[in-house]
Amino acid sequence: MPRTNSHAVVLGAGIAGLLAARVLAPRFDGVTVVERDELTDAATRRRGVPQGSHVHGLVLRGKRTIEALIPGFTHDLIGLGAPTFDFAADFAIRNPFGWAQQFPSDLYAVSASRPLTELVIRRRVMSLPNVTALTQTTATGLIGGHGRIDAVLLRTPGSAEPVPLPADLVVDATGRGSRASRWLAELGYGGFAETASTRMSVMPRAATRFPRGGRPTGRFATSNFSADTGNHPQDTHIATADGHFGETPRRTYPFRRLLIALPTAHSAVLVRNDQR
Fold it and tell me: pTM score, two decimals?
């Protein structure tokens, strides 16, 4: 049961923030999601999610976790055009030893663009009666003392000064741009260690449209891993190059040159069929 007159504030309306709001909704009288971007009822890219235009795929554990919180999530995604695929049979992986063996399995996952995934989650979470959103609103600090946080300072386009929003709990889901450590230090709380589980750099994507009937078959038949609500036709493939742990592809090769240089003919076909 929620506490009487309790209020939780979630900073950030990305996937993490929306799922946090879903978890908090049964436990608080009200949950407010604060987002500096404008949120629409469409699968549109947001300035606050710069990686949103790249290839996205929801792994099996992630799908199951979201489905447990939002029953029908997978059904909604598929209904909007997201393809499903078998990780072991349909996902082509090439390592220094050659192509990995492919075989049928029960590891079925669903793939969708980041904007579409967010849209489906956002529709379901924002339909909860005690969850509201403040959009085009920026958190600028915290108010608190004596071991607790009492409010979040918010600035809207029309406000001259930040306005406090009372909160019994504040969840920071703003990602790597978070300023929570600085805000807490300003209140006298310090010594927080920050760790990064993965460091990855991503190059600008390339959208490649194949002629009708000219899509790859066999191993690459399901390579359209970025469905959304109409931004990419079904004959469009999206290629993304990324580097890990200090490797930065864009500093080594231009994007198309990098894909052509990879030891697989398919990446070169993707680039050479680019009809943008």
Answer: 0.77
- Structural domain boundaries of the chain? 200-272
CA dihedral 266, 268, 269, 275 (to 10 degrees): 140
Contact between 225 and 55 (Cβ < 8 Å)? yes
DSSP 160: S
CB atoms inside a 10 Å sphere around CB 6: 15
Residues with Cβ within 8 Å of 7's Cβ and at least 6 positions away in sequence, in order, are 28, 29, 30, 31, 32, 166, 167, 168
d(CA 178, CA 136): 17
* 39-76 CB burial, b ≥16 within 10 A, e <16: beeebbbbeebeebbbbbbbeeeebeebeeebeebbeb
> How does DSSP assign 123-180, residue by residue?
HHHHTSTTEEEE-S-EEEEEEEETTEEEEEEEE-TT-SS-EEEE-SEEEE--GGG--H
pLDDT at position 6: 94
Scanning the structure block, which residue is given the tokens 């990780």? 87
Q: What is the pLDDT of residues 259-271, one digit of tens each?
A: 666 666 555 555 5
List, for residues 4-62, the tens digit of each pLDDT value.
679 999 999 999 999 999 999 999 999 999 999 888 888 777 776 766 666 667 778 88
Rounded Cα distance between 3 and 28, Å, is 6
Q: Where are the alpha helices (DSSP H) in the chain?
A: 15-24, 60-69, 73-79, 87-90, 114-126, 180-186, 255-261, 265-272
**If DSSP codes are grouped into helix, strand and coil, which group holds residue 70?**
coil
